[in-house]
Amino acid sequence: MPTPGYTREIPQRYRLEANKCKNCGKISFPPRLVCPYCGARNFEPTKLSDTGKIVTFTTIRVAPGRYAAYVPYSIAIIELNDGVKITTQVVDCKPEDLEIGKAVRIIFRKMYPEGKTGIICYGYKAVLI
Amino acid sequence: MIGIVGYGSYIPRYRIRADDIARQWGRDPETVKRGLLLKEKTVPGLDEDTITISVAAAKNALRRAEIEPGEIGALYIGSESHPYAVKPSGTVVAEALGITPEVHIADFEFACKAGTEAMYVAYAQVRAELVKYAMGIGADTSQGAPGDALEFSASAGGSAFIFGKEKVIAAVIDTYSYTTDTADFWRREGAFYPLHGGRFTGAPAYFKHILGAGRAILKKNNLKPEDFTYAVFHMPNGKFPMSAGKRLGFKREQMEPGWIVPLMGNTYSASSPTAFSATLDIAKPGDLILLVSFGSGAGSDAFIFKVTERINEVREKAEKVKDMLTRSPIYLDYGRYAKFRGKIIMNE
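Above: the input entities. Below: the structure tokens describing the complete assembly.
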């Protein structure tokens, strides 16, 4: 990811900052300029819960280059306690440890470095709790 | 009263046993374990570094401090393994914690005492009344060359301490620093692994500075070892801290709560801070705790803390060090360990 784009997305990637529509009350994550539910343009910032549960998951055994060292690893759709669903990697466990409904915590981890000399990109992942 | 208002640690889940490292290099595991008093050590995950470890430890400190992140006016991180040569780890950590932009940030480096340096300056900032709260973090993903004695100990983890004047859980009674130019351990710019002076790292380095700082702060405050409930010394291996403590007049039971090195290894900048964190996990109001770090190059920072009643209110708000050390570790064989630590040459 180019550095300017990465920097602009820091609030959502580092701190799970989302937008809550002032018209319909629905939360958009990542934040949007127009509410996908009602079309309104007025939002207030909100921070998502850092705990939730696994809705579904899959195991990656043939990964893109940046993630090749992690295989086999799991990607899950997680429903956070405030109802927002996010997709992320579940780390520090084996794929067979995952089950639908298991509780997770969102943590701050390294996503990938941009080669040997570029910036290091950080973001959110999940661990079982 | 100025002191610690929140503390927290983070220890990765991955481990490698000393037996596996010894067998890899044709060494007798029992001799190694007996010599260093080390059983296993922590290993950072593929996606963990000093920055992610600092964030995790700092979040635990914030849980115990019960303050808004934005109230922190200074953030200092001590480490031997900052991910960037140029770009402070603190900038990323501060963004992740939500304490930017009104915050003073610096990264510190002083071998294994960079963590207590960060604590020292955080305390000084509060004492100077420049900020309301300041956070000092010691975190590392320590390096040790393959086959070297350091490979048995160099581990990963971190601890964070928030200093302030209100809601203090451990008051700072005094500090003292003892520093000389002693080339016992170093890593030149661009070098991947550190080098050390073998036995020279003992008497003229570790013991001279730990004992120098320890004796001086006791004398300065007219205190004796028996006045303290606990004492914590930097832990390059299992033997050195126990030996230094005994030479200062401390007993094994005063040092044992912080003696986490057999299961954690030497977490460099996070070593004595995490041992101190483990000691706070069991300390009672009124306890006096001596903390003496050591960083090669060389120097020691000494602190005397007095625990307050508030410790009992905050202790359970974050996970304790001993629980992190024993909670379902994931053991790596040497091959996976080498992959995790980037010791295998890969194509781009």
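Note for the figure: The domain at 49-129 of chain A is CATH 2.40.50.840 (OB fold (Dihydrolipoamide Acetyltransferase, E2P)).
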